[in-house]
Amino acid sequence: MRNKLHSLFHSLSLPAAALALAGLMAGCTGMSSGSSPGGKAYTGMRVSSSAFTDNSVIPADHAGAGECGGKNISMPVAWSNLPAKTKSVAVLVFDPDGGAGLGVSHWVAYNIAAERGELKAGEGQAGSNFNFTMGPNVAGAPAYRGMCPPVGDRPHHYVLTVVALDLAPGALPAGLARDPLLAALKGHALGGQSVVGLYSR
Predict the structure, then answer these.
(1) What distance in Å separates the CA atoms of residue 89 and residue 73, rounded to the nearest whole number?
(2) pTM for this predicted structure
(3) pLDDT digits (tens, 9 = 90+) for 40-69
């Protein structure tokens, strides 16, 4: 099976932080075709958002409030067909085009029970009653941060990634931003998949 995430990151010539995630995913056993220990064919993780399809425009509601043009509502995400032994997942939203090409982290969520199967729209809001952990976004707040690319830029690519983990929910400490989380996931990631949305102002 083609490693969609690996190909995506290389085709976009992403910055080092994004390439680090691609490298992490490239070594995941869940990304390759083959059979599970039970003998059933493994057809790969599935990740989607009911708000947009892959490579389509993300609705403005999920952009930042005010001048960014949105309502700062975290986007919904669903996952299925996880690799065997998955106990939890992490959810990341990253803009490789932002930050003058260095990338911008919009959402870091982890310690999410795999069997949930989804995060609904708005579950990433600051102060929401969630039962998972959120790390700091680019602004330092443990919450979803809506999209807000510079006015006049070509549409930015927002990569919504789900990583399947062999870690039980609650195993990771609070306060992990994107890069420290990726470091903590090494050796525990079983597979990953992404959907990419576009947004501009």
Answers:
(1) 21
(2) 0.81
(3) 555 699 999 999 999 999 999 999 999 999
